[in-house]
């Protein structure tokens, strides 16, 4: 049996699929009634409590595991108003890799705070995993430096994986999480309410996100975020704030081994690491 369960795919009328890091296997055929019972069980037999999350296409269960849904939706223009029939589930198994960001931390952390930092990669390369570990390290303190107050906007419950408002992933002792809140709104709320040293946010991109980032910078708040992209040209097209001082690019080779490279604001390579073996530049 392959190790490292990553996803369980459940589809009405089809065999369940188990997706592992080392391969896939299939199980028994699933009926529509099975999916209905799974939704009831996973929601704690209170499906109305997760209705707002269902309208967004997913919900988070205890342990930080995320359940994506597909099926028949009722819509009003661009807004989902009801979920009438759920025919597919994608249960993404939560994994946290601690220490993955530690080799790059000397280039992200300065004496009193951090450099404004963006983590950049294509989808599925590990941006959120790396960002989560940065948050944990910074809010716990490291290398003799004090812990920082890190406020997290977790719009899709992927960083902290909150369940009933409590983080299921370890995001450190000095972090505060605003779960299931739009990024631009959440950044402004945390700026007013939590007196953060750092605001962390995943998958920036919209104009409202960039406007909120500029407001944070003008108020002296340090930024730790992630964005989809592959190179500096991608970032220029997104009109990101000029105050960004560090860029962490994540990529992988043909064998799937990830490479982490950090650049300064002039896009000069500072450090790169593959499987924990680093090289200063």
Summarize the structure.
The protein is an alpha/beta fold and 281 residues long. Helices cover 22% and strands 37% of the residues.
Provide keyphrases for this structure:
9-stranded mixed sheet, 17 strands, Rossmann fold, 2 domains, 7 helices, Beta-Lactamase, 281 residues, alpha/beta
Can you describe this structure?
The protein is of the alpha/beta class and 281 residues long. The protein has 2 domains: 5-92, Beta-Lactamase (2-Layer Sandwich); 102-280, Rossmann fold. It is 22% helix and 37% strand. It contains 7 helices and 17 strands. The strands form 3 sheets. A 9-stranded mixed sheet has the order 11-8-12-13-7-14-15-16-17, sandwiched between helices. Strand 14 and strand 15 (258-264) form a beta hairpin. Helix 5 (183-193) packs parallel to helix 6. The longest helix is centred in the middle third of the chain and has 14 residues, at 127-140. The chain is globular. The protein starts with a strand and ends with a strand. The model has no long low-confidence stretch (mean pLDDT 88). This is Stage III sporulation protein AA. Residues 5-266 form the Stage III sporulation protein AA AAA+ ATPase domain. GO terms for molecular function: ATP binding. Keywords: ATP-binding, Nucleotide-binding. InterPro entries: P-loop_NTPase (IPR027417), Spore_III_AA_AAA+_ATPase (IPR045735).
């Amino acid at each position: 049996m392959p190790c490292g369960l990553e996803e369980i795919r459940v589809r009405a009328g089809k065999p369940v699929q188990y997706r592992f890091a080392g391969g896939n296997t299939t199980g028994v055929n699933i009926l529509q009634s099975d999916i209905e019972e799974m939704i009831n069980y996973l929601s704690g037999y209170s499906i109305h409590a997760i209705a707002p999350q269902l309208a967004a296409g997913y919900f988070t269960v205890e342990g930080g595991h995320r359940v994506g849904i597909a099926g028949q939706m009722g819509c009003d223009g661009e807004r989902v108003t009801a979920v009438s029939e759920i025919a597919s589930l994608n249960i993404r198994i939560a994994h946290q890799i601690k220490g993955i960001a530690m080799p790059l931390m000397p280039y992200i952390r300065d004496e009193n705070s951090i450099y404004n930092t963006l983590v950049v990669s294509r989808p599925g390369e590990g941006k959120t995993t790396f960002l989560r570990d940065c948050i944990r390290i910074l809010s716990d303190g490291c290398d003799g430096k004090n812990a920082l107050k890190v406020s997290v906007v977790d719009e899709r419950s992927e960083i902290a994986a909150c369940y009933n408002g409590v983080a299921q992933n370890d995001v450190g002792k000095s972090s505060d999480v605003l779960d299931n809140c739009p990024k631009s709104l959440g950044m402004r709320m945390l700026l007013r309410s939590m007196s953060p040293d750092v605001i962390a946010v995943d998958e920036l991109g919209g104009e409202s996100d960039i406007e909120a980032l500029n407001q944070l910078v003008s108020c002296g708040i340090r930024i730790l975020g992630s964005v989809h992209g592959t190179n500096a040209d991608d970032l220029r097209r997104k009109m990101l704030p000029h105050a960004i001082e560090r860029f962490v690019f994540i990529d992988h080779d043909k064998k799937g081994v990830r490479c982490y490279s950090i650049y300064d604001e002039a896009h000069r390579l500072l450090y790169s690491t593959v499987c924990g073996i680093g090289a200063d530049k």
